[in-house]
Amino acid sequence: MSNPFFENIEKKTGVNMGEVLKLANSIQNANLKDEATVRGLIQQVGKIANKPVKKETEDQLVNTIINNSEQVNFNTIAKMLDKKK
């Protein structure tokens, strides 16, 4: 990306903004009631954030997301991963 804002974020976080935007788009269009879809998204967030997700944590996140009536987005999943450290 040639956007200075994104370049600055990438430099500070080490996170590829192209991957974040692609993931955000995936989340927008995802069926968050489908377990396989939710597991895939959690794994993608972990990969982008360079944080391995333990099976137990993934199971808890999947259960929370599938049964949650609130809107879920990248920040929601990232916050959940931070709480599970």
From TrEMBL:
InterPro entries: SpoVIF. It holds the Pfam family SpoVIF. This is Sporulation protein. It comes from Anaerobacillus isosaccharinicus.
